[in-house]
Write a structure and sequence with these properties.
- There is one protein chain.
- Helix content is 67%, strand content 0%.
- The chain contains five helices and no strands.
- It starts with a helix and ends in a 10-residue tail after the last helix.
Length: 96
């Protein structure tokens, strides 16, 4: 969702307008909450810290390994979260 907001904004679409459109398709409390946070750029206090996202991603990847399953998107998320934590962003919201 964050990438979609960035892509839309880089192409001249106002974040609120984009949020209004996607809310009609994906209307749910989770999308509404995180979409509002992104539109208003209210990343602090963190709703879910990046360090917790990294921990949960590690747990999912461990479980996948035990089940002999592949989770390529979780691997990608782990890379991003790891870089964020390495850069001192561990206490910021994971969607930032």
């Amino acid at each position: 969702m964050s990438e979609a907001f960035i892509f839309a904004q880089k192409n001249g679409i106002e974040p609120q307008s984009f949020f209004d459109v996607i809310s009609t398709f994906f209307g749910s409390p989770i999308y509404d909450n995180y979409g509002s946070i992104m539109v208003n750029e209210e990343f602090e206090p963190a709703g879910f810290k990046m360090s917790l996202g990294l921990k949960d991603t590690h747990l999912a990847l461990e479980a996948a390994q035990e089940a002999d399953a592949s989770l390529p998107l979780a691997e990608l998320a782990k890379e991003h979260f790891s870089k964020g934590v390495e850069n001192g962003l561990e206490d910021l919201d994971w969607q930032r």
